[in-house]
Amino acid sequence: MSIPSAFLQDLLARADLVEVVGRHVALRKSGANYLGLCPFHAEKSPSFTVSPAKQFYHCFGCGAHGNAIDFLMAHTGAGFREAVHDLAAQVGLTVPEEERSPEQRAREAAQRRAQQTLAELMAQAARAYRAQLKASPRAIDYLKGRGLTGGIAKTYGLGYAPAQRRFLSTVFGDYQDARLVECGLVVEGDGDEARRHDRFRDRIMFPIRNVKGEVIGFGGRVLDGGEPKYLNSPETPLFHKGEELYGLYEARSAIRQAGCALVVEGYMDVVALAQLGFGHAVATLGTACTPEHVRKLLRFTDDVVFAFDGDAAGRRAAQRALAAALPWAGDTRRFRFLFLPPEHDPDSYIRTHGAEAFAAALAQATPLSRFVLEVAADGCDLATAEGRARATAQARPLWQALPDGALKRQLLHELADLAALEVRDLQQLWQDAAPPARGPAHASRPAAAPPGRTVRSSPHATAPTPQTPPPAAAPRTRWPARPDAAALQARRAARGLLGRGDRIARIVLTTPEAWDWLTADDHALLAQEPPPHGPLFAWLEAQWLEHGPQPWAALREGLRGQPFEALAVALHDSGLGLARMDDGAADDAPTDAAEMRRELRELLRRMRIEALKQLETALLARAGSDPDAQARYREVVAERALLQQGDDSI
Where is composition skewed (Low complexity) in this entry (predicted)? Predict the structure, then answer.
């Protein structure tokens, strides 16, 4: 069912973007616009602007831009439909949906009201548990003994459930309210209301929030040696374990800043890692990682690291996470697997060895492609034909779960090498084989392919356009010809899908003097970019050295016949605008040379940070045997830290 486009336009016209953004970002008036620190990347000088006249936001640092619906999707991780409903509720509108009867709409409205009531009960309980923590020296001492401070406890809303059987009867006026049972706070014994009691007693309480920050469940940990060690809320109308991740609401900004999400297994792992600087950690809730978990994380990042204990249970959990991640593992996404020593979980490891050792371990995490090979070869003697045949059978469902792309093609070659077969023979074998019987858990595919993600709307969008979900395609006897990289980039640029290199090239191509704003080090860094951007920047450097700043007409003639010609033309023709307003001006374009220069410097700063991160990884690999690499690693870390603080004087 779609949302009528006329309603979307009316909704955006009624919504006050300054008010919507202002609920999440501190804004101050600056001329005709409002200014604040960007919520999508770390910065000390505000470069995030909101235009009340155009109802459009733009960050000159990271390029984030859009309307009120875009902001809610990007900041809260909500899907398109959820963001529309949220915005409509804020402005007092009801979302009309085609192909829904009045009865269906009434039922859904009643369901939303009931869920909101349950969320209010959970919030009230969370406040009571937080107050009890402050009054319990024993609970405070326990958290201090685990290395936690009051600041981190406040960030994650930690609380304490007293040992009283009916503590919540002092919190809620009607302890017999059926909704207390429905939301999982109270347990009713055999239908006898007189035997009701609190579900959580004498436990440290970890509130579980959804992406909007609403408390939807709790996890409770015993302070002493009781059982079970952890107790979770049951499945309720608010809370579904297979869909929620503990700490995701608190980790949203850290995930964007770190560029990746770290998935662990326990509540304490999350808060302990956050305490020591790894605020981008989240945890599954006593269940295996699911495709829905992965889909939710991919709203915030394209890089996910799964961290597990190194024992047999940890390996099994990693294999289930692999099955959940495979359908999403496209060519622009990265999944990795970190295995700690068997005696450690992330909490104990970082407290024993320190944050630097944990960061080094993260840098050495196993890529998905290598883990696929390990799982395929699990229990197989590859020195024998029988062992290689079994590995081939175990590899087939793993490989088929991958979406088509370069990763799938390259992995096919590696699996063929593992099986000592030619690629053509392996493909023919898999194509001719009958569907295999259900194998071990780690080799099985998810029951259903994950749903597609929704493309963000522009101010003039008529309806959301869903992307095709990653398919689990059958093996093909022949791969399509590889498209030219420059042509692909040009098509992306023409559609406004611009990366950091695209945006830099767009500025220097449309502004002749922009190349003079950059240093020789900047020029060298840009020339090292992979094709087609690196060769384009190297060509621009040669043109600048020989002719100085040139207008586009001269550059256009020189570009003829170059392999990056189509990309350069597409970037120039985009006209510094991803979304055009009614007056034809590009709202995300800097309004003068000073702002454009600032955007260019910020893009270079972020590019240098990424280059230093790659250098750190390379140095870490040599640090164990090379003292010079250790010293250089520390220098690079310090240099990157200065850049991340906004110091561009290096």
Answer: 434-465, 474-485
At residue 400, the pLDDT reads 92
Residue 545 sits in the same domain as residue 415: no
Assess whether 496 and 385 both reside in one domain. Answer: no
Paired tokens of 92: 């007092």
- Contacting residues for 505 by C-beta, under 8 A, at least 6 apart: 533, 536, 537, 567, 568, 571
10 Å Cβ neighbour count for 356? 15
* Statement to judge: residues 527 and 597 lie in one domain: yes
Strand arrangement, sheet containing 203-209: 159-161, 203-209, 215-222, 230-232
pLDDT at 456: 37
Domain assignment of residue 453, yes or no: no
Q: What sign for the dihedral angle of Cα 13, 19, 23, 26?
A: positive
Q: What is the 3-state secondary structure (H, E, C) of 183-230?
A: CCCEEEECCEEEEEEECCCCEEEEEEECCCCCEEEEEEEECCCCCCCE
Residue range 260-277, pLDDT digits in tens: 999 998 899 999 999 999
What are the tens digits of pLDDT across the range 342-393?
888 888 899 889 999 999 999 999 999 999 999 999 999 999 999 999 999 9
Count up the domains in the chain and report the number: 4
Peptide bond into 435 cis (omega under 30): no
Q: Are residues 250 and 382 in the same domain?
A: no
420 and 296 fall within a common domain: no
Yes or no: say if 201 and 168 are a contact pair by the CB < 8 Å rule.
no
pTM, rounded to two decimals: 0.59
Can you give the pLDDT at residue 619? 78
Q: Could you tell me if 184 and 76 lie in one domain?
A: no
Rounded Cα distance, 118 and 178, in Å = 11
- CATH code of residue 71: 3.90.580.10
CA angle 506-511-517, nearest 5°? 95
- 68 and 139 in a single domain? The answer is no
Domain extent, residue 343, equals 115-324+332-353
Q: What span, in angstroms and rounded, lies between the C-alpha atoms of 489 and 529?
A: 14
Whether the bond into 532 is cis, omega within 30 of 0: yes
Residue 443 domain-assigned? no
Residues 208 and 244 grouped into a single domain: yes
pLDDT at site 645 = 72
